[in-house]
Amino acid sequence: MAGPAAPALAPARTGETAARAARIRRNWLLATPALVLLLLAASGPLLVVVVYSVLEPGEYSGVVWELSGEGWFRVLFHRDIFDDTLSLADAHLTIFWRSASISLLTTAITLVLGFPTAYFIATRPPTQRMLWLFLVTIPFWTNLLIRTFAIMEVIRNEGILNSWAMKLGLIQAPIQILYTDTAVLIGMVYVYLPLMVLPLYAAMERLDFRLVEAAYDLYASRWRVLTRVIVPLVRPGIVAGSILVFIPSLGAYVTPRVLGGGKNMMISNLIELQFGEGRNWPLGAALSMTLLAFVMVALLVYVRNMSKVERRG
Amino acid sequence: MNRRLTGALSALALLALTGTAAAEGELNIYNWGNYTNPELIKKFEETYKVKVTITDYDSNSTALTKVKAGGHGFDIVVPSANYVPIFVQEGLLLETRPDKMENFKNVDPQWVDVPWDPGRHYTVPWQWGTTGIALNTSIYSGDPNTSAIFMDPPPELVGKVNVVPEMNDVIGLAIMYVGGEPCTEDKNVLRQVRDKLMAAKPKWQSMDYGMTEKMSNGDVMASVNWNGSTFRVRLKNPKVVYGYPKEGYVVWMDSVAVLKDAKNVENAKLFQNFIMDPENAALISAFARYANGVKGSEQYMPEDMKTAPEIVVPEKYKAAGKFLPTCSKAARDLYTAIWTELRK
C-alpha cells in the first residue's frame, strides 16, 4: 500500500516533513483544475437532474419552480387518468424488469461466448495475439447506429437470416425476430461482446498455464481444471467484464430504440419519452436517478466481489 | 412626399445591406425526416449562394422540445397546423409577415386565412395531406378504409401492424373511431379511446416511424401512415393501398416558420418566399408526394400525382376527413396522459 509512511514517528526531522507538506500542497494545486472540472462536469448536471426531479412539470416541457414529489411518486405508482385511483405503475415495473433481465441475459451470453474466445486468444503464440485482439476491436471502427442497422438487415423478415433459412427449407414462413425482445438481446450481445472479451483476455494473459499443466498431471478432468483452476484465477476478469457489459446494457438506448420498434422499451427509452412526448421532465429526472441507483447497486456488488478476490488472492 | 421617399430609400438601403450580407451565408432547416427534396435545396443554394443544412426530426413534440431548449442553431422549422399556435404562444417564432412577400400571391386562398395562423403572419404552406391506413393487400384483402385495421386488427394482421408514434394523429383517429370529435374533452369518449388503444397495443408489431422504407421492403404489413408516404410505398410495392378510415381520418398541413433565435433570418425569409413559387412548390411535392398549398404548381408536378388515389381524395371519403385544430389545454393534457400510458 502506498499510503503515508507514518512521518509522525520521526518528529525530529521537521525539515523533511515540511518538504513533504509542500509537495503534497503542490500536488493538490496541480490536481485542482482536474478536480474542479470533474466536480463541475460530473456533479453539476447530476445536481440539475436531482433538482428537476422534485419540481413541477412545465406545460410544454421544462419545469416550473415549485416543489413536488409527484415525479418520484410516479416512478412507482400510477394514478388513473379518469378516476384518480392509485395502483402500482406496472408499465414502469415491466420496463425495469425488461431492462434488468435483458441486461443480465446479455451479460450471461457474452460471458459464455467471450470466455472461450479470450481463452483461445490467450493461448495463441504472443506474436499472433495482437492480431486476434485487433480483430476483436474492429467493430468499434463503425458507428454503433450503423452496426445496429446492419443487425436489422440480418434479422428482418426478408433479411439474410430468414431468406437463407427459407431457401434451405428450415422454415416455411419468415420468423418475426425484428421488434421483439429477442432482437434487442441479439443486438446487445453483438454490441457488448468485445467489452467482455477484452478484460477476460487481460486476466487470462496473466494466467500461469503451468498451473493448468500441474492440474492435469494430478489427474484432474478438463471440467475440474476449468472450474477449480482457470475460473478462480481469471475471476477478476470475469467480474470486470460482467460489470463492463451489465452497466451499459442497463442504460442502452440505441439498440432497443432501433431493434425494439418503439414498443419494447428499456429504461433509457422511457426516460427519453418523458423528456420528449411525455413532457414530464420531473418524472424523467426521477427515472434517471432510479437508473443511477441500479448502476450504483451493480457497482457495489462489483466492489464487494473484488475485495473478496483481493483478500483471497 | 419627400419623407416617404427618404423612408423608401432607407428601407431599400437596409434591404440592400442585409441582402448582400445574407446572399452568401448559411441556412439551417429543421424539418421532418425524408421530407425535403434535395433538388429544391440545390436550386435554392444555387440561386442565393447559400449553404443549406437540413436536420431531421420525427415528431412535432421532438421539434418543440428541442427548439424550446435553445442552442439548436436552426433557422427554420416546419410544424403541423396544431403545433403552430403553441410555437407562437411560446414565443419561438419570428413574425416574418409572409403575407407581404412577393410570391404570396401564389398561395391558394383556402390556405391563407387559416385558424392556426390567420392571414399568414408567421408561416408559409409546405405540404398538406391526410393520415390514414397503409395496408399490404397480400396479407389481408379486407377493407382498408377503417381504423379497425389498428384499433381492432383482423386475425391476419395481429402482430403485423405498426402505429406511427405521432400523438395527435393517432389519438385523433382513435377518438373518431369511437365516435367522438377531435379535441373532445368528454371523459366517456376518452376512456373508451384509452381502453381500446391499450387493448389493441399487444396486437401491434411496433410503434415506429420510417414506413416509407419499412412497408416498401415488407418489414411492416399495415400501419397508420400518411398519404404521401404510402404513395411512395405503392410506387415500390404495388400491393400496398391507402385507406381513408370511414369513421374519420385526419387532415393536416405543415407550414414553414422562421425561429425567433434564427441566426440567418434573411436567408430564412428568402426561403419562405422561394417555396411559394409554383415551380418550387411542385418540387416539394414531387419528392415527398403530398399536395402543397400553392396555386399553379400542378402544371409542374409529376403526371402520376394528378390521379393518385392517395393524393386525390375519392369523393365518397371526402366527408370523413377532419382538420385537426389546436385543442384546449385540458384536452391536450388528457391526450398526453393517454399517450404516455400507451407508449410505455
From TrEMBL, chain A:
Subcellular location: Cell membrane
PROSITE patterns documented for this protein: ABC_TM1
Domain ABC transmembrane type-1: 96-302
Membrane topology listed for this record: Multi-pass membrane protein
Pfam families hit by this protein: BPD_transp_1
UniProt keyword list: Cell membrane, Membrane, Transmembrane, Transmembrane helix, Transport
GO biological processes: transmembrane transport
UniProt key word Transmembrane: yes
GO CC annotations on file: plasma membrane
Predominant localisation class: membrane
Residue intervals passing through the bilayer: 28-55, 95-119, 131-152, 183-204, 225-247, 283-303
SUPFAM superfamilies assigned: MetI-like
Protein family membership: Belongs to the binding-protein-dependent transport system permease family. CysTW subfamily.
PANTHER family hit by this protein: INNER MEMBRANE ABC TRANSPORTER PERMEASE PROTEIN YDCU-RELATED (PTHR42929:SF1), INNER MEMBRANE ABC TRANSPORTER PERMEASE PROTEIN YDCU-RELATED-RELATED (PTHR42929)
Name under which the protein is recorded: ABC transporter permease
Species name: Thalassobaculum fulvum
UniProtKB/TrEMBL annotation, chain B:
Gene3D superfamilies in alphabetical order: Periplasmic binding protein-like II
InterPro entries with a match to the protein in the record: SBP (IPR006059), Sperm_putr-bd (IPR001188)
One GO term of the biological process aspect: polyamine transport
Coiled-coil boundaries: none
A Gene Ontology cellular-component term: periplasmic space
Record GO terms (molecular function): polyamine binding
Compartmental location: Periplasm
Signal peptide interval: 1-23
Pfam families: SBP_bac_8
This protein's UniProt keywords: Periplasm, Signal, Transport
PANTHER family: NORSPERMIDINE SENSOR, SPERMIDINE/PUTRESCINE-BINDING PERIPLASMIC PROTEIN
Protein family per UniProt: Belongs to the bacterial solute-binding protein PotD/PotF family.
Free-text function comment from the UniProt entry: Required for the activity of the bacterial periplasmic transport system of putrescine.
Protein name: Putrescine-binding periplasmic protein
